[in-house]
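Whether sequence alone determines local backbone shape is best considered at the level of individual chains. When preparing material for the folding task, we compiled for one chain both its residues and its backbone structure tokens. The sequence in question and its structure tokens are set out directly beneath this paragraph.
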Amino acid sequence: MKNKLRNKSFILMMIAAMLALVPASAYAASDSTPYAKLNFNSNKYYLFNNSWGSSGISGWWQTVYHNSNTNFGYVWNWPTTTGGVKAFPSIVSGWHWTEGYTPGSGLPTRLSDNKAINSGVTYSIDPATNGQYNNAYDIWLHSTGTATWSSTPTEEIMIWNRWTSGVGPIGGLVASNVSIGGQGYDVYRGEITDNGVHLWWVYSFLKRTQTDNFTINVKNFTDYLVGKSYFPTTRYVSSIEYGTEITNGSGQLNYSNFYANVQ
């Protein structure tokens, strides 16, 4: 992933637009560089300014910020009408494409070890937020417990709790109104390929009753998929992410809490 340089006039435009969306108080730490990271909670987590779908898009900006462990998030502006995900600013615990595992995350953990992975988020969305997006967990699995930045995952599990009209998961519906952890979900299965070559499967759980603040035990979802014979218990959960998949528009999401604990 390559960083993009911005000229002075673009930076000034970005700052002016941000001021319309965020409080007047300055950020304790912020970064608008694509793929920038802001570590927090003893480096167990980091905010990731992921803009993986930005190729060919002009006039956009996106900033991650961290004032404290109860006041952090991201602001974005994607002035485009093209379809497809442009970015996934997120909180990362564990592995990611850019590095190995974050310290203290308890990841990776093998499914056969039967450990709970409890996680929760509390956040607010700026009322001026517009466009198309979803808020979701993104959980990565590997066949190895020593994944590196270049290790291709075997599965990806997405758990959507909030989304706008006009966006949807990859693949097709495979189950409706499945009860997991006392909540109802519709389940989708899709495939990621590269020039026709299989890379990994994506399993998306869309919450039937949308909510903003959300808690899960990842084990409940992996147990369901193992029970359906989609993958074996030899898989490792490598990463827990939570973030916003953005298609277009502008907005801000501010977190007051995030945790992911392997127990």
